[in-house]
Structure formats: C-alpha cells, structure tokens
From TrEMBL:
<protein>
    <submittedName>
        <fullName>Glycosyltransferase family 2 protein</fullName>
    </submittedName>
</protein>
<feature type="domain" description="Glycosyltransferase 2-like">
    <location>
        <begin position="4"/>
        <end position="125"/>
    </location>
</feature>
<comment type="similarity">
    <text>Belongs to the glycosyltransferase 2 family. WaaE/KdtX subfamily.</text>
</comment>
<dbReference type="InterPro" id="IPR001173">
    <property type="entry name" value="Glyco_trans_2-like"/>
</dbReference>
<dbReference type="InterPro" id="IPR029044">
    <property type="entry name" value="Nucleotide-diphossugar_trans"/>
</dbReference>
<dbReference type="Pfam" id="PF00535">
    <property type="entry name" value="Glycos_transf_2"/>
</dbReference>
Length: 275
C-alpha cells in the first residue's frame, strides 16, 4: 500500500478503539497528539502506530506540522480525525486510483457521512461537503485556523466513497465543548475580516469548495444567521427527513452560529474599550 495515515488526537480514548482497527490495512500510521491526558498514547502504541506530540495552537498549524515535519514511509498521506472511520470501500478506491497513476493530481477530496442518534443525518448535516484528505506529501499546504483550506498547485481529484464520521461518540457534552472552542476561533476570524466577500463567479464555480466558501461568505454577512442556518438545514436541505436526529442537529448548528455572533460582539466591545 502506498499510503501513510495521520490521525489527529486530543483525549480520544473513546474513539481510537473504533478508528484504529479500521486502519489495519496501513503499515504506517502516525498519531499526532495534542498532549492528551487519557489513554490515547497507550491505545495508539498498542495498535502499532507511531506517536508524536505537539502543543496545539490551531488546526492549520497542526496539519502543516503533520505534512511538513513528520517523515512517512509512503508518498501519499491520508488525514483522518479520531472520530472518523475509513471503510474498506474507500480503501479500495484509493488503491485503485494510485495504482493506475495520478498524473498531476496532488490532492483527492472525499465526503463524509455524519452519524447522530444511530443514523446517517444525510440532510441536516449539509451533505455533501467535500474535504481534501488524501494528499501527495510535499505538494499541499493548509491555511485558515479552523475549517481549514488545502492549497495546491496540482490538480484535484474526487473520490466517490465516504469517510464515516461519528462526532457524538464522546457524548453531547464533548461536542458542545469542542464547538465552544470552534466558535471562539470563528468569532476572531469574523471580527478580523477572515471571511472574504464572495465573488459572484464563485457561486457558479465547478469547484464545490469554491461554491461552499462563497455561500459561507454570504451567510456570515446575513442578519439573523442562526435562524437562517436552522431554516436552511431543516427545511431547505431536508433535515426533517432525518427525523428527531435531524431536528436536534439543526438546532445545535443554529446554536453554534449564535455562539459565534455573541462572541464576535463581545470581542468587538473589548477591542473598542482597548482603543
């Protein structure tokens, strides 16, 4: 197999027993840890993975460290989060692409199936969203501190199989804690103008990442964004078809947007006082 795997972790003793066995096909798994204080290290080493630690500052820096500092056995790197599972179908598709040559392709994007309350929340999760995860080492850099963007001069390929994502494996409290941290980062970016105004052409780009960035740039400038998010996920995207899980998740996403707004206002007040 010509693929190495990088797993980012922070206190993932509940997720690693699900994530790591699904990587048994890989002979070069590296766990990049943000100084966990649970059994993450023991579980990683017991699985045969290499274990590296780095103090976390932001997601782009963490991923760039994984891309540029750690040495790997293979030329291609699959980036996986600890709450994700790589199914055999995706492994087979990656093998097939790399077996027949990649030309100038330096990154492959794939989608995730988000699971909540025992089911795939296809509609309320905003599916499909494409993520750059299979990367030719030395050809890609990561930008943006949160909800990172992958920059490359090479071509972009697309894989049809999915990662399975279980964001609530560690419980609702863990999800809320994580998104509390995320909302702080997003509020800082919002206040600092980190979301550029979208261009009209981006809304019709053939690149789904460009379209998503344009939509997000527009949404962040809308009044009543939390309510708009709920309406978009639950009614427009069809979250009601996901049953109770779809309703609850749509509410959680709306609340996340509300936290970003509140924190951005708070930071703005603080900055004015400091002037």
């Amino acid at each position: 197999m010509t693929i190495s795997v990088l797993v980012l972790t922070l206190n993932e003793e509940l997720n690693l027993p699900i994530c790591l066995p699904a990587l048994a096909w890989c002979d070069d798994v590296v766990v990049l840890d943000s100084h966990s204080n649970d059994k993450t290290e023991q579980l990683a080493l017991a699985s045969g993975a290499r274990f590296v630690q780095r103090v976390f500052d932001n997601y782009a820096a963490q991923r760039n460290f994984g891309l540029n500092v750690i040495n790997y056995k293979h030329d291609w790197l699959l980036m996986v989060d600890a709450d994700e599972v790589v199914p055999p179908e995706l492994v087979a598709e990656m093998r097939e692409h790399l077996k027949h040559g990649t030309g100038n392709t330096s990154i492959y994007r794939m989608r995730r199936k988000d699971h909540f309350l025992g089911r795939w929340i296809k509609h309320s999760s905003g599916y499909p969203t494409w993520f750059g995860r299979l990367i030719k080492i030395g050809s890609v850099q990561v930008e943006r501190e949160i909800n990172e963007e992958y920059i490359t001069d090479g071509d972009v390929g697309y894989l049809q199989e999915h990662l399975y994502h279980y964001p609530f494996n560690k419980g609702m409290s863990s999800w809320i804690d994580k998104h509390n941290r995320y909302s702080t980062m997003e509020a800082k970016l919002l206040l600092e103008g980190g979301l550029a105004a979208p261009s009209f052409a981006d809304f019709f780009s053939s690149d789904p990442t460009d379209r998503r960035r344009a939509i997000k740039g527009l949404v962040y400038r809308m009044p009543g964004r939390p309510l708009a998010m709920f309406f978009a996920l639950y009614f427009v995207k069809g979250g009601f078809l996901d049953g109770r899980a779809g309703f609850v998740f749509s509410v959680l996403r709306a609340f996340y947007e509300f936290m970003i707004n509140c924190k951005a206002r708070e930071l703005k007040v603080i900055s004015i006082k400091d002037e």
